[in-house]
Every structure is written in structure tokens, then in C-alpha cells.
Amino acid sequence: MTPLEAIRSALDSLRGHPLRSVLTMLGMIFGVAAVIAMLAIGAGAEQQALAMIERLGANNVLVRDVELEDNAKEEARQTSPGVSPRDMVAILDAVPGIETVAARATISPYQVVAGARTTQTTLHGVSWETGQLSHLAVAEGRFLDALDERTHAQVAVIGERVRRELFGWQPVLGARLKVDDLWLEVIGVLAPSPAATDVHGVAVGSTASEIYMPIATVLRKLDRPPLDAPLDELVLRLSAGTDPREAARQVEALLGRLHGSVKDFEIVVPEALLEQSRRTQRLFSLVMGCIAGISLLVGGIGIMNIMLATVLERTREIGVRCAVGARQRDIRDLFLVESFAISVLGGLVGVVLGVMVAKIVAASAGWPTVVTLFSVALSFSVSLAVGLGSGLYPAMRAAHLDPIEAIRHE
Question: Are residues 256 and 281 in the same domain?
Fold first, then answer.
């Protein structure tokens, strides 16, 4: 029997029992779809986490102010001012391997006015190096520079939603907006960024509703609550070859002494967050892969059961084929090809279903998904292997039937 004849016979058998064939394929379909969808969701989550950590800066160390309760804050301020410019100077002087320290002071929420339009926004006073350290891409205009900070310039870089709500799609560079009693000139618009999220307990906001000003301007010309720390965050850029964890330990020890052992700050190491995120995603992918693998295994058991039933149903046909000269290899290939055809068709439908599920999840839940060639190839290859493995025993059993007994079978 030629391979083409075996394939034609297998397809004829599947067409002869369409409902049984579809039910047999379901295990393969759902197994393959589950593998693709779960890996796509996992890859999307990892991509989102990587994008967020990139904004923090994988080679940076962050010092963030810790929000205390009012009573605890009053007591803490007697000993420590919180994160402050004094900490910046001390870190640069005492901790080796620190190239640059950029500061951020946040005032939110804030009502911003431009003409007859208003919007609610988060206002950040930042060092001019922040654009580079936090990978803030500018779609129009420019980011803040050293001259803006040195001259306390009344300029602002705005997020895309702020631009849309205050100015629509009109030209915005050079336009003016009012924050409290302070007029600012728009010098740049930030590029779209991912939505705000939380990466292992560390909040990473979206830039869409934010305004960035020189930190010197914010500290001099805008009011902050008297018990709040002067700064909300310090971003420390490390020189090449500096171990972020070791630098973080030295910074924590230094600030502990400067703050009189008051724990009103926290140290964030984005590199450690990146490793933790990858470990979490690997574990997620492993668990989801095992669950999907169980579905494929169940599908394989279903194929084996159906193929055994098919062998029993076609016993007389096997005897007739042997009587007219069919070899054991021909009988074996006949049933192996049928099993393989089931897994191929089920795998193809499963690939389509898996991609559709990934797209539906992305559209309805707003969760990013990434369908990779690896996930498609892996799931489809496993389904083929399961199909062949499941059909091997029934095919061997059919090949070793006694032709005389097979012909007599009713």
C-alpha cells in the first residue's frame, strides 16, 4: 500500500464517521488551544512587566519615600525630613559607583487650566536627567534640560491625555497652561506609554495623565504639605560593572544613619524585580503548560480508545486485506496514518482556536498577549507526537491479527 493510498483510506474512514472523528479530535483541539493561549498570556504579561521595569531602569536603584500615618509622620519628622536633597548629596559623596542622582517631587491630584478647558493631572517636578534615566520618550518637542532646571524655568512636558483634554489636536508646542497661579509653557508631549501597573508591589504609573516640570521650579514656586518629604523619589544611575544589590545595601545603610533609623524610605532594585518577574512567568508557563499537557494526554487516550474500537470494527476488513496480499506493515501504516490524521486536523483547529482565544482575551480583558511561533510549533508538535504514540498500539494490534480469525470475525 502506498502512502497516498493510506492517507486516502484514513480520510475516507474519518469522513465515514464525522461525529466520532470530531469528538476524538476535541482533546487535541482543546489541548493545543490551551497551550497556545496560556503561553501567549504568559508572554504578554512578561512583555508588559519588562516594559514597566525598563521605565524604572534595569541599571538603576530607586530610593522612594514611604507614606506614613499622620501621627507617625509627625513623630518621624522630628528626627528625619524624609527623602530630601541632602540625601542626594550624601549618596553621590559616599557611595561608589553612582554616576547620577535624579530627583522627583510629586503633587497630585492637581487641577490644570488651559483656556476654557480643565483636567485633573499628576504633577511631577523632576531633575532634567529623568527623561534619560526613566526612558521617557517624547513624541513632540523636547524634554527638560539643565538650563530649565538652573533657571527655574516655567515650562512643562505633558502626557498625551493631558494634551488631548486641554488642547485637542491643535498645535501644542508653545501653548500655555495654568497650574495653581503658575503659568507654564508647553515644550514637549510625551509618547504613549503602557497603562499604570504594579510590578511585584512597586507601582509604575502611566505618563498619559502626567505633567513634568523642572524640580527647582516645583520646590520654589508650588506648595507641598508641610509634613511631606521634600522629594518622593531618587533615581540612582550606576556606573558599568557596579552591582545594583551591593549599591542598594550601601545606600540603605547610609540613609538609615541620615534618617536616624526612621524607616521613611524604601530601596527598589529594578534588576531584582526583573529576575523575580521572569521567575514568576516561568513558573506560570510551567504550570499552565502542565495543565494543557494533561488535556493533550486525555486527548491521546481518547484517540487510542477510538482506534482500538476501529480495529475491532474493521477486523473482517483487515482479514480480507491480508488475504489479498497486504503485509503487516501495510495494516500498521493504515491505522497509524488514521491516528496521525486525527492529530493533524485536531492540532490545526487547536492552533486557530488558541490564537482566537489569545486575541479575545487581549481585546476583552485588556491583558496583553503575544502569540509566538515557538508556542504554535511546540503545541502542534506535541499533538502530532501524542497522536502517533496513541495510535501505535492499536496499529500494532491490528497488524498482528490472525488473518484467518479476522476473516471469520462477525
Answer: no
d(CA 183, CA 192): 25
In single-letter form, the type of residue at position 404 comes to I
Is residue 98 within 8 Å of residue 87, measured between CB atoms? no
Which domain does 117 fall in, by range?
67-263
Q: Mark whether 291 and 348 lie in a shared domain.
A: yes
- Type of residue at 155: V
Question: Can you give the pTM of this predicted structure?
Answer: 0.65
- Tell me: the pLDDT tens digits for 217-236? 998 888 888 888 889 889 88
**DSSP per residue, 290-302:** HHHHHHHHHHHHH
Note the Cα 339 to chain centre separation in Å.
37
d(CA 41, CA 135): 25
Q: Are residues 228 and 319 in the same domain?
A: no
Does residue 36 sit within a domain?
Answer: yes
What is the identity of the amino acid at 163? R
Give pLDDT tens digits for 168-223.
Answer: 888 899 999 998 888 999 999 998 876 555 554 555 567 888 899 999 999 888 88
Structural domains counted in the chain: 2
